[in-house]
């Protein structure tokens, strides 16, 4: 695990450099989910996401590596999907079966794909969008162990881009497991705070229950929606500028959908609140989103 110091008290956890399945948090989650697929003897995958979904890309590459068929239920425009680079290209080139649907047709389309695999004699794995399940969270409990092994500096704050919430929940559970005092703050990329916090809290409690650890972070679950800019894939001029200057200024990419939004939110939040202590930014990936953005 690589950690870059960008200021005396600001550190960046480079999970964008996670080495397999195209990297980032979806690569890390999918590796963990893959062990479960393997252990349970399953041999096909059905999952869902948007046109530039990092999760669908990781799932499609995992399936290709393991020679199993994979169906991706994509909500979004078919023409845009066939033209775009980045994750869309990797999904096409992994030769996943793609089913397009409206947002309200996702669960029906996933059920049909599951039935189709079963009718052909497969044992398919139903994978929630974003890799949002127990294994996805457990991947991040382990990642915190890895961070603490690799860094002598203890984090007082960890900031990250929060979407489905399992990365944040896993980090919170990792902090509880290691009995350290640290505020984990999610910057929401799509949902309003109340809903986002409920989902993170729920996943966190499931993880604590599963691992039999004290849920020390439960009452401080925090996901900020001040930087949503109207929703998923939306951004403001400040985020755009930060993204465009990220390589020259920091030497790593910050995309406008995930990590740029979160990094922008982090800088604003700790300036506003005059936070003191060691601040860790958990860089969750998004390089392919960065490359695909205008
Ligand atoms: C999916 C994603 C997130 C959010 O992770 P969740 O576990 O869904 O909250 C953050 N950053 C990047 C780059 C992602 O692809």
UniProtKB/TrEMBL annotation:
Instruction: Spell out the Pfam families in the cross-references.
Output: PALP
Keyword annotations for this protein, in alphabetical order, are:
Pyridoxal phosphate
Gene3D superfamilies found in the cross-reference section? 3.40.50.1100
Disulfide bond recorded as keyword: no
Q: Sorted alphabetically, which SUPFAM superfamilies does this protein's record hold? A: Tryptophan synthase beta subunit-like PLP-dependent enzymes
Cofactor(s) recorded for this entry are: pyridoxal 5'-phosphate
Q: Where is the Tryptophan synthase beta chain-like PALP domain?
A: 8-285
What InterPro entries does the record tag this protein with?
ACCD_DCysDesulf, TrpB-like_PALP, TrpB-like_PALP_sf
Q: Aminoacyl-tRNA synthetase among the record's keywords?
A: no
Describe the family membership recorded for this protein in Swiss-Prot or TrEMBL. Answer: Belongs to the ACC deaminase/D-cysteine desulfhydrase family.
Protein name as catalogued: 1-aminocyclopropane-1-carboxylate deaminase/D-cysteine desulfhydrase
Organism in which the protein naturally occurs: Flagellimonas iocasae
Species lineage, top-down?
Answer: Bacteria, Pseudomonadati, Bacteroidota, Flavobacteriia, Flavobacteriales
């Amino acid at each position: 695990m690589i950690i870059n110091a960008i200021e005396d008290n600001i550190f960046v956890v480079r999970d964008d450099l996670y080495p397999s399945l195209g990297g980032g948090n979806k690569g890390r989650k999918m590796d963990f989910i893959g062990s479960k697929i393997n252990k349970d003897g399953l041999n096909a995958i059905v999952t869902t996401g948007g046109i530039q979904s990092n999760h669908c890309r990781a799932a499609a590459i995992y399936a290709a590596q393991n020679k199993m068929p994979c169906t991706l239920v994509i909500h979004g425009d078919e023409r845009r999907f066939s033209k775009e680079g980045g994750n869309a290209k990797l999904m096409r080139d992994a030769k996943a079966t793609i089913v397009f649907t409206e947002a309200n047709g996702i669960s029906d389309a996933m059920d049909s794909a599951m039935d189709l695999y079963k009718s052909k004699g497969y044992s398919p794995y139903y994978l929630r969008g974003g890799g949002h399940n127990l294994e996805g969270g457990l991947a991040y409990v382990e990642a915190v162990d890895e961070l603490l092994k690799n860094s002598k500096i203890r984090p007082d704050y960890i900031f990250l881009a929060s979407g489905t919430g399992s990365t944040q929940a896993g980090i919170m559970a990792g902090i509880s497991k290691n009995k350290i005092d640290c505020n984990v703050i999610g910057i929401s990329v799509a949902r309003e705070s109340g809903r986002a916090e409920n989902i993170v809290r729920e996943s966190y409690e499931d993880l604590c229950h599963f691992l039999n650890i004290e849920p020390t972070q439960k009452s401080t679950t925090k996901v900020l929606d001040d930087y949503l800019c109207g929703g998923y894939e939306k951004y403001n001029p400040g985020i755009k500028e930060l993204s465009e200057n990220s390589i020259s200024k920091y030497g790593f990419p910050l995309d406008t959908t995930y990590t740029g939004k979160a990094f922008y939110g982090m800088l604003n939040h700790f300036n506003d609140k005059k936070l003191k202590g060691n601040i860790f930014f958990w860089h969750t990936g998004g390089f392919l989103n960065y490359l695909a953005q205008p």
